[in-house]
Amino acid sequence: MAERPLVLPLRGVWIAEGRHSPVLRSADGIARALERLVGRGFTTLFPAVWNRGATAFPSRVMERHGFAAQDPLYGDFDPLAELVRQARPLGLAVIPWFEYGFAASPHADGGPLLTARPDWTARDRRGAPVSHGSLLWMTGLHPEVQQLLIDLAVEVLETYEVQGIQGDDRWPALPWNAGYDSWTRRAWRDAGGGDPPPPRDSSWMAFRANLLTEHLRTLRQVVHMVRPGALVSMAPAPLPHGFRELLQDSGRWMREDLVDLLHPQLYRGDARAYGALLERTVRGWSAEQRARLAPGISFRVRGRTLAPATVAAMLGRHRPLGLAGEVFFHYDGLEEAVPQEALPQQGVPSGPRVPGRWPVLTQ
């Protein structure tokens, strides 16, 4: 196999949707944020584009399904178009983040998605709607729900000059106690399973997790068909929690080469705990697999902002492991947790230079 091009170590940041951050609400907000990020050597932006059953960009896909074309929060402004416009001359990669994934709404009525399509509701063994992380969920195993997310990803890739798309701990994911909707029950019976067993049954867990993995396989095939070289980036919950609580088999994703970049949410409040979790995560991984890993670090853990020294110590764990870099959650905690002097300057991210999979992040 020919050696792949070297890429600058990835230093990324998630940019929250407009209810939690002012960045995406205006062109000026975007300009101010990019100025700060370039000065701190950031290379990659992950803007939230899918929240509460609505997109942060005008979507023909959503209109076709009978939903609003765009989150009304943004009015006539297209923050994704403006972000891409400003980021490109600065050499910043943009990978839109489908934050809500298969989650529908924080509201008890399920928001616009489940109000219009109650058959998409994730249900527990008693038939009640499933809530996880304070959100009501769709059943991400339903083919129509999966197709909606794939169609939105394709729409973004065909409309905007972005470098890929990103899921997280909600895509592909399903709360451990879900899967008792009529579609998934029928799929289990068709596979010879009869009535679905209790939610923690190992064969039932594996069945549902496999359906999510196969969805990811399809997503990756579609993404690379629509735009060869585009990145499929995922930020799952870390193992074993990710599998136990959300049926995310991210170890398998890496073994079967289903993701181009992985950013497990290793949110810990001290460097020692972070390092231990990181080392467990990469145990047994090849150098090529480690070169696709850029762990997620949260500026705030359990209500406390990390000290700059703690952030620096966490980053120091990456260099000996040959990782791709790191991604921070999220932009609005940057000033407090990582002042200007706490990170290397522009063009010198914290990680080593590693064999990269794609040229799109090359400076």
**How large is the radius of gyration?**
20 Å
The main sheet comes to: 5 strands, parallel
The helix/strand order is EEHEEEHHEEHEEHEHHEHHEHHEEEHEHE
Structural class: alpha/beta
In terms of per-residue confidence, which ranges show pLDDT below 50 for 5 or more consecutive residues?
1-7, 344-363
Number of strands: 17
SS strand fraction = 5-15%
Shape verdict: globular
Going across the biggest sheet, name each strand in turn: 6-3-2-16-13
Give the % helix.
25-40%
Instruction: Note the quaternary state here.
Output: single chain
Q: Report the mean per-residue pLDDT as an integer.
A: 90
How many DSSP helices? Answer: 13
Q: Distance between the terminal alpha carbons, to the nearest Å?
A: 23 Å
In short:
With 363 residues, the chain is an alpha/beta fold. The chain is built from 13 helices and 17 strands.
Name its key features:
363 residues; disordered C terminus; single chain; alpha/beta; 14% strand; three-stranded antiparallel sheet; five-stranded parallel sheet; disordered N terminus; globular; 34% helix
Report on the structure:
- There is one protein chain.
- The chain has helices at residues 27-39, 60-64, 79-87, 111-116, 143-159, 182-190, 202-226, 241-246, 250-255, 271-282, 287-290, 308-316, 334-337; strands at residues 6-7, 10-15, 44-47, 50-51, 54-55, 93-94, 103-105, 131-132, 135-137, 164-167, 231-234, 261-262, 296-298, 300-301, 304-305, 325-329, 354-355.
- It is an alpha/beta fold and 363 residues long.
- A 5-stranded parallel β-sheet has the order 6-3-2-16-13, covered by helices on one side.
- The protein has 13 helices and 17 strands.
